[in-house]
């Protein structure tokens, strides 16, 4: 199921997705990159050969160029070339003449620069964004001393030389006519896409000079927005940390940069750097006094209590429960002294979440949190509490009807307050609950609803919608549902989309990783490739220890290592009963029952299966209940009461065919055919003939299901049974065909060593 508390992390930088950043005392100054931008603006103003489409693209490009961090000349020219190749060549040519000329060339550029902008009809008049930028640059340049102007010119030459090193000159044999022909497309140089991916060298001015105030604000706002909405578009963790370290080198008291460093470190689970950055953020926030100015006398205390709350959240993420509890107690104490009910509610939410992580019953705390959140008109926290209560109640087997109604009521609250994130979480919860109950059709419907729903939040900067944990969980359920129906190509496409949207270094990558490994394991086990399944066990164990142990036992059972499999399952059963993991407990008990079949202990297994059936029905787990009925029917068949086995099979066959996996459908029909064959021995000849014909039809349908999941071992068994039945009916041609197919598969596949009639 989806975790419903990832959004409880307090983010003081963001209000409605906007980062409030301030670089203290840093003003705009002239850099080589900004000179290149001024050349671009000048060329845009005087050029008459720019088409309307190119002009539109350039206008969309201007604001990011003005507000973003400095770029290398290779990156800048490539960006402009994508919009207008002729203009990019003109900018390159003017910078080449300026850098290869003398200091007076740069002086004359700034002298003549204002003239194109004096016209009131110009799109870059003095009151526009472009005009203001140009005026700031002219004023900053006029304030420079002669030595500073000389250093700026040397920096410009170095800026252009770094471009020449990355974009080697065209061969000297190229004629001037060829140069003119290449100019609009290649800028006279081979600028490849991989040049943009090169790490900045020591000569790149963009990586060594500090950002201006506007650049820092834009950079932090963009990266924080990407981390929240579309992590794939944010800088890589190492690259972002390098930029933040460069920013903090010039201004160590930049509090918001420390907080972004904390968020970036959480992406890679770096506990040391994330703790260090979080503490530095609140230290700088308190020392700067900015929080006190905006919140009066309470600002200082507010920073302290939210610092403790964020520290508790940090320790919770890393599983440091004792440290998290101490930090929560500190936050609660300070919040009580200040009568901060909002902070106290956040603390209470983390307190019951901490109890859940420790394996304790937190129902009372959660209910109290919901009541207090409603009392103080905090719908977000109230809804999160209800979602958590529903999740706990579903695991503990509470009434399914009440749970779905509770989720329906929370949906009304979400739509009323336009809480898009919680709407996604609610749909993901319903998808997981329906799938846990064994209603795959309803789970598929909920998953498709989330896939086709537009976010209520405004999406800027070209990010994709629904890049949240809830969306990841729903897509993983969707992939597993397709794999269960034998649609492995569709499941592969879904996993491919997950990998593109959530890279391996993102926080939600673990979800699709374990989903992919489970699908591959099931395919390998069904196809009899036990060595491949065994290699996947270690990967699954690294992602989920419980699931890894269960899969290890399945491989051992398939390899006929009964004693070792029983030992692993017994240890896992004790652990699951201790942690109250009912679903895994039932799966383990069914696996133990199959081990008893290997020793022909069908009488001993009945009490275990009846206990499993009662447990699955108590928790409304229809899929596992139907699977348990199949096991009971098989045991009764082995005990010599096929009529009773056939009767109880009718209880399970309908839900299995409606909502079950393809493998379960095939096993159910195979068991029905076996029971029909055995019961036909005690009926008259004409009825026996009809019963065998129906059994053959059921076997044929079961074979089609096994073919979908590439379970050739089961297909081999069906061919054997069909050949025997056709022989009994006197159909020689069909018998020979099935016998030939059985022989082909028997030569390809190794013998499983388990008699056909002693396994389900």
From TrEMBL:
Species lineage, top-down?
Answer: Eukaryota, Metazoa, Chordata, Craniata, Vertebrata
Residue ranges, compositional bias (Basic and acidic residues): 187-196
Q: What is this protein called?
A: Anaphase-promoting complex subunit 5
Q: Which family does it belong to?
A: Belongs to the APC5 family.
Which positions fall inside the Anaphase-promoting complex subunit domain?
Answer: 258-357, 463-495
Cell location: Cytoplasm, Cytoskeleton, Spindle; Nucleus
An example GO CC term for this entry is: anaphase-promoting complex
Sequence ranges assigned to domain Anaphase-promoting complex subunit 5 N-terminal in this UniProt record: 30-166
Q: Which SUPFAM superfamilies match?
A: TPR-like
* Pathway(s) where this gene product acts: Protein modification; protein ubiquitination
Keyword annotations for this protein, in alphabetical order, are: Cell cycle, Cell division, Cytoplasm, Cytoskeleton, Mitosis, Nucleus, Phosphoprotein, Repeat, TPR repeat, Ubl conjugation pathway
What GO biological process term is on the record, naming one?
Answer: positive regulation of mitotic metaphase/anaphase transition
What's the gene?
Answer: Anapc5
Q: What is the organism of origin for this protein?
A: Polypterus senegalus (Senegal bichir)
Where, if anywhere, are coiled coils annotated? none
Give the highest taxon in the source lineage: Eukaryota
Its biological purpose? Component of the anaphase promoting complex/cyclosome (APC/C), a cell cycle-regulated E3 ubiquitin ligase that controls progression through mitosis and the G1 phase of the cell cycle. The APC/C complex acts by mediating ubiquitination and subsequent degradation of target proteins: it mainly mediates the formation of 'Lys-11'-linked polyubiquitin chains and, to a lower extent, the formation of 'Lys-48'- and 'Lys-63'-linked polyubiquitin chains. The APC/C complex catalyzes assembly of branched 'Lys-11'-/'Lys-48'-linked branched ubiquitin chains on target proteins.
In terms of InterPro entries, this protein maps to:
Apc5 (IPR037679), Apc5_dom (IPR026000), Apc5_N (IPR048968), TPR-like_helical_dom_sf (IPR011990), TPR_rpt (IPR019734)
